[in-house]
C-alpha cells in the first residue's frame, strides 16, 4: 500500500512546486504589464491635460490620479492579464521548460493551469475593484479640481417622482450634478398645485444616499384654493431673497426635496459605472422600462470574465507558434490574435446595443459573446499538441 501511494504523493508535491513556479512567472509578468500600462496612461493623460495642471497644486493632481487609476485598471485589466499570461508562457516556451514538463508526462493545459487560475483570481479582483473601491472614489473624482473642464451635458427630459410630481430640465451636467432651466410641478389629486421655475438647480448631498436640490434664481407660482377668485400667487427666490415668506432669513435658493436623485437622471444617458451592483439593481427595479439597466447589470458580472476569455483566445497563439517561419510566423499569429480580440469586443458592443434597444434580452445580449469566444478559445487551447 505504501509503495503505491508514494509515487502519487510525490507527483502531487512536484506539481505543487511547478504550479508555484509557473504562477510566479505569470504574476511577475503581470506586474510589469500593469506598471507599464498605468504608467503610459498617466504620462499620456498628463500631456493631454497639461493646460489644466499648470495652476493646480501637486496634491490635487496626485489625489485626482489616486481616484482615477482604479477606474482605468478595471477597464484595462483584461488586456494586462492577457499580456502578462502571454509573456509568461512565451518565456517558459522559449526556455524549453514546457517541453521538459511535457517530457515528464504533464500536458500543456495542466502546465499552464496556474496561469488560468491566476487570470480567474484577477477577474475576481477586478470585480471587487468595481464593486467596492470605485463607488467610494466616485465623489472624489467628481469633485476634483483638475477634472476635465469641458463640462459635458445632456438633455434629461421629463421625470416623475413617487408622489406624481414632475421635473423637467433643459440640461444636466453630470460632472457637477447640476440642472439648468428647471421646471418642477407639484401635483395634488392629479392636478398641478404649484409650479416652480428656476434658472439652475444643484444637488446638495446629505450623506451617501440622501440630499436635496437647491433651486436658484426662480419663481414659485401657487394655484389658488378651490373657490378662491384670485390669480396665481407668485414668490421669487434666489440670492438675497427669502425662500419662504414665513422665514425672513436670506438664502441662496429654494431647497427642493424629492425622490428624484442625480442617479435617476444619469441612468438615462450618462455613465453609471460608479454604481455598485446593489445600487444598479435598485435602479433597474425602479426603472424597469429601461432595458439599458438590465444590460448594464449583466455586464457587471460578465465583464470580469474577459480576463479568462482573452487568455483562452491568446494563449494558443503562443503555444502553437511556428518558430520555423521566424518573425513572419510570429507576426501572422499576433495579427490573428488582434483580429480575434477585436471581433470579441465588436460583437459584444453590437449585441449590447441591441440589448439596450430592447431587440435582445439583456442576458443573451451580454453573455452570448462570452460564451462563443470563451468556448471557442478553450477548445482551441485544449487542441494544442500535448
Can you give a write-up of this model?
The chain has 386 residues and is of the alpha+beta class. It has helices at 2-48, 50-53, 58-94, 97-103, 108-111, 113-142, 262-269, 277-286, 291-302, 306-319, 326-356, 362-382; strands at residues 157-160, 166-173, 178-188, 191-205, 211-222, 233-237, 241-244, 247-251, 254-256. Strands 1, 2, 3, 4, 5, 6 and 9 form a seven-stranded antiparallel beta sheet that branches. The protein has a two-stranded antiparallel ribbon with strand order 7-8. A hairpin with a 5-residue loop joins β1 (157-160) and β2 (166-173). It folds into two domains: 2-146 and 298-382, no CATH class; 157-262, no CATH class.
H and E string: HHHHHHEEEEEEEEEHHHHHH
As a percent range, the share of strand residues is 15-25%
The rough form would be described as elongated
Distance between the termini: 31 Å
Compute the number of strand runs: 9
Contiguous low-pLDDT stretches (5 residues minimum) are 1-6
Q: Quaternary arrangement of the chains shown?
A: single chain
Helix content: 55-70%
In this structure, how is the largest beta sheet organized? 7 strands, antiparallel
Mean residue pLDDT: 84
Query: Structural class, from helix and strand content?
Result: alpha+beta
What integer value in Å does the Rg equal?
Answer: 28 Å
The count of helical stretches stands at: 12
Count of discrete structural domains: 2
Question: Strands, helices and their partners?
Answer:
Blueprint: H1 2-48, H2 50-53, H3 58-94, H4 97-103, H5 108-111, H6 113-142, E1 157-160, E2 166-173, E3 178-188, E4 191-205, E5 211-222, E6 233-237, E7 241-244, E8 247-251, E9 254-256, H7 262-269, H8 277-286, H9 291-302, H10 306-319, H11 326-356, H12 362-382
Antiparallel strand pairs: 1-2, 2-3, 3-4, 4-5, 5-6, 5-9, 7-8
Helix pairs in contact: 1-3, 1-6, 3-6, 3-10, 6-10, 8-9, 9-12, 10-11, 10-12, 11-12
Amino acid at each position: 500500500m505504501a509503495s503505491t501511494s508514494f509515487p502519487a504523493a510525490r507527483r502531487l508535491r512536484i506539481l505543487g512546486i511547478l504550479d508555484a513556479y509557473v504562477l510566479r512567472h505569470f504574476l511577475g509578468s503581470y506586474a510589469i504589464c500593469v506598471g507599464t500600462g498605468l504608467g503610459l496612461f498617466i504620462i499620456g493623460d498628463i500631456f493631454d491635460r497639461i493646460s489644466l495642471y499648470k495652476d493646480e497644486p501637486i496634491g490635487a493632481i496626485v489625489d485626482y490620479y489616486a481616484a482615477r487609476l482604479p477606474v482605468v485598471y478595471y477597464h484595462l485589466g483584461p488586456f494586462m492579464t492577457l499580456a502578462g499570461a502571454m509573456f509568461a508562457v512565451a518565456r517558459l516556451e522559449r526556455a524549453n521548460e514546457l517541453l521538459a514538463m511535457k517530457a515528464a508526462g504533464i500536458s500543456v493545459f495542466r502546465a499552464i493551469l496556474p496561469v488560468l487560475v491566476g487570470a480567474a483570481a484577477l477577474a475576481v479582483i477586478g470585480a471587487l475593484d468595481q464593486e467596492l473601491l470605485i463607488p467610494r472614489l466616485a465623489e472624489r473624482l467628481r469633485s476634483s479640481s483638475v477634472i476635465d473642464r469641458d463640462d459635458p451635458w445632456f438633455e434629461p427630459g421629463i421625470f416623475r417622482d413617487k408622489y406624481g410630481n414632475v421635473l423637467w430640465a433643459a440640461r444636466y451636467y453630470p460632472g457637477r450634478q447640476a440642472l439648468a432651466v428647471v421646471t418642477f410641478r407639484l401635483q395634488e389629486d392629479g392636478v398641478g398645485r404649484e409650479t416652480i421655475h428656476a434658472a439652475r438647480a444643484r444637488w446638495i448631498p446629505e450623506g451617501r444616499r440622501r440630499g436635496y436640490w437647491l433651486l436658484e434664481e426662480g419663481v414659485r407660482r401657487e394655484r389658488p384654493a378651490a373657490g378662491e377668485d384670485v390669480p396665481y400667487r407668485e414668490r421669487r427666490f434666489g440670492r438675497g431673497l427669502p425662500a419662504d415668506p414665513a422665514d425672513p432669513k436670506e438664502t441662496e435658493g429654494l431647497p427642493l426635496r424629492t425622490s428624484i436623485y442625480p442617479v435617476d437622471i444619469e441612468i438615462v444617458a450618462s455613465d453609471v459605472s460608479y454604481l455598485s451592483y446593489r445600487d444598479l439593481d435598485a435602479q433597474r427595479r425602479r426603472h424597469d422600462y429601461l432595458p439599458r439597466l438590465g444590460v448594464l447589470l449583466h455586464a457587471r458580472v460578465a465583464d470580469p470574465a474577459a480576463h479568462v476569455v482573452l487568455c483562452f483566445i491568446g494563449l494558443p497563439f503562443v503555444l502553437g507558434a511556428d518558430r520555423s517561419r521566424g518573425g513572419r510566423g510570429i507576426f501572422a499569429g499576433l495579427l490573428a490574435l488582434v483580429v480575434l480580440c477585436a471581433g470579441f469586443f465588436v460583437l459584444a458592443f453590437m449585441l449590447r446595443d441591441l440589448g439596450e434597444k430592447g431587440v435582445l434580452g439583456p442576458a443573451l445580449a451580454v453573455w452570448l459573446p462570452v460564451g462563443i469566444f470563451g468556448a471557442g478559445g478553450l477548445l482551441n487551447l485544449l487542441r494544442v499538441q500535448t
